[in-house]
Amino acid sequence: MTISRLATISSLRSLLPALALGLIPTTASAQAYQCSLPRLSQVPQVESERPRRLPVTGYTLALSWSPEFCRFREDQRRHARQCSGRDGRFGFTVHGLWPSSGRSWPQWCGGPDMRAEELRKNLCISPDAALVTRQWEKHGTCMVRRPATYLKVTRILYNGLRWPDFVRISREDDLTAGTIRTRFADANQGWFPEAVGVHLDSKGWLEELRLCYDKRFMPTACDRRRFGATNGEAAKIWRGL
User: Fold this and answer.
1) Residue 212's pLDDT band (boundaries 50, 70, 90)?
2) Which CATH number fits domain 3-29+49-227: 3.30.1490.20, 3.30.70.100, 3.40.720.10, 3.90.730.10?
3) pTM for the model
4) Are 234 and 204 contacting, i.e. CB atoms less than 8 angstroms apart?
5) Where are the domains of the chain?
6) First CA to last CA across the chain, in angstroms?
7) Which residues have a Cβ under 8 Å from the Cβ of 103 and sit 6 or more positions away?
8) Considering only Cβ atoms within 10 Å of each terminal Cβ, which end of the chain, N or C, has fewer?
9) Would you say residue 86 has pLDDT above 90?
């Protein structure tokens, strides 16, 4: 086992008791409206790339704003579960949980294949099975030995978040990236705006939040790359209505 994986396991052992003691909120409002877990018989295949093994110094939970992602994908078969509306409506979904190493990312460290019953548990927070599989192969293998552990930690972090009303926020006058950061931090005890990355597209529409954690899975200030748009940048949120 690598030093990075040992450090991650130690961090996870401290994270789990915190959840049990209620130090991490567990009554987050639902983001996958009316979602039900689908049947899943097999795991999509992922082609691995050259490994990049680096010491883990922190983590990023990347959250995609589904109404924006689905804006022009409603009729695409590839994204039917997330975007067609037949399987529920989604708000923020998990793009991935990524280990970081200073200015770079550990990637493709190699690990066991994910099982269908493990993957299925995450399909209401990450509705794309192929994406979940790739995130494990590319990022999770550099954190822990078992895909079930990676998936469980992702669920713990996601389910511990509280969500302000982004539809209401979208209607605020003079909305900026800084406003989005502040509204999220105000809704989540222990979070502060500098730990919330806000990524906008070229026209200013919200695409992702990137939440920055230290090695103990505590909020920490994002570096410039993860921070994304500056606080004063004008922002728009597509409501999907």
Assistant:
1) very high
2) 3.90.730.10
3) 0.86
4) yes
5) 3-29+49-227
6) 48
7) 223, 225
8) C
9) no
